Amino acid sequence: MKIVVLAGGLSTEREVSLVTGTAVCKALRRKGHQAVLVDLFLGLEDYDGPLEALFDAPDGRCGNAAIKTSAPDLDAVRRRRKDQSPGLIGKDVLSACALADIVFVGLHGESGEDGRIQATLDLLGIPYTGSGHLSSAMAMDKIVTKRMMDAAGIRTPKWRLAEYGEADVAALAEELPLPCVVKTPGGGSSLGVYLPETRAELKAALRDVLRFDSQVIVEERIMGRDIFTAVLGERWLPSVEVISATGKFDYAAKYQSGAALELCPADLTEDQQREIGEMALKLHQLLGLSIYSRADFVLDGDGVPWCLETNSLPGLTPASLMPKEAAAVGLTYDDLCEEIVQLSLRRKN
């Protein structure tokens, strides 16, 4: 099949997406597909040939993507675009997608997980992998997800929504409970997530989060083990436990080798694994997600799991968690990518 692997974009998770897209593109090519990597934001400005020949590129247009220790400089990415147009979709991206049998959505964060690119592809009648536009948007919005978990009885830490400006930071920092978790409603890859333990740290977190949003979720901090569970098709996969070397599973810990220890399958009792898996699957279905997702949990000191959120497009880099869970049930990385494509085509048909 001809497959466009859509990655990059203009998101704080841009570099993660490019590594995901590169790995997926290479895997699909090993499976015999004419897969080609296309950057959502930069598009095909550097491609001179006919679009029909795009899929014949011997290397699938795969570069040497890598994830740095900090989030990318998006202003620098904007300056790289030759036409300097304001749109989020680059030159000939949609035309290339229209020539493909399916688009593998390897995007993360804004314009990828928030449902906007899915809605665009839906309007053009272009099949793609993963969840639809509405469920993607709901899963990306932590406020919506929290409200739905509360309504459905899925155990999640107590939380509140605060909307504020710079002038409100000092008063809000004195009012909120500690320790807590402060997070933006639409962040990802642990960007826009803070774990303040003092009033000074809370004030700094509230001030910093204004870079992302004027709304913030303040969540009760459950102390315990970090557990992550993926859903593939209609089944949950064995959980991964992540133990950060610094005690915080932040952006660097997620993507830098040696920054965290990952145990898969996690050391859980059968009852704990079943409960966590069923909670992940229930949230997946509740939000109307399809094909695959990954839910994040904390297992407290009493062995009780608390669901934090879910991700409609979990990372598929070689260091990501979902490929490790798939490997635990005998699925190689290449097989995982192929199954995502086949499940997505089955849904379309």
* Gap from first CA to last CA: 16 Å
Class per helix and strand makeup: alpha+beta
If you compute it from the alpha carbons, what radius of gyration comes out, rounded to the nearest whole angstrom? Answer: 20 Å
Shape: globular
Number of strands: 13
- What's the number of domains? 3
Helical percentage = 25-40%
CATH C-level label of the largest domain: Alpha Beta
Question: Could you explain the architecture of this structure?
Answer:
The structure is a single chain. With 349 residues, the chain is α+β, with helices and mostly antiparallel strands. The chain folds into three domains: 2-128, Rossmann fold (3-Layer(aba) Sandwich), CATH 3.40.50.20; 140-155 and 224-348, D-amino Acid Aminotransferase, Chain A, domain 1 (2-Layer Sandwich), CATH 3.30.470; 159-220, ATP-grasp fold, A domain (Dna Ligase, domain 1). 35% of the residues lie in helices and 20% in strands. It has helices at residues 14-30, 74-80, 93-99, 116-124, 133-140, 142-152, 169-175, 199-209, 251-255, 270-286, 321-328, 333-348, and strands at residues 2-7, 34-39, 102-105, 159-163, 180-183, 193-194, 215-220, 224-232, 235-236, 240-244, 260-263, 292-300, 305-311. The strands form three sheets. Strands 8, 9, 10, 11, 12 and 13 form a six-stranded antiparallel sheet that branches. Strands 4-7-5-6 form a four-stranded antiparallel sheet, sandwiched between helices. Strand 1, helix 1 (14-30) and strand 2 (34-39) form a beta-alpha-beta unit. Helix 7 packs across helix 8 (199-209). The longest helix is centred in the first third of the chain and has 17 residues, at 14-30. The chain is globular, with a radius of gyration of 20 Å. The mean pLDDT is 92.
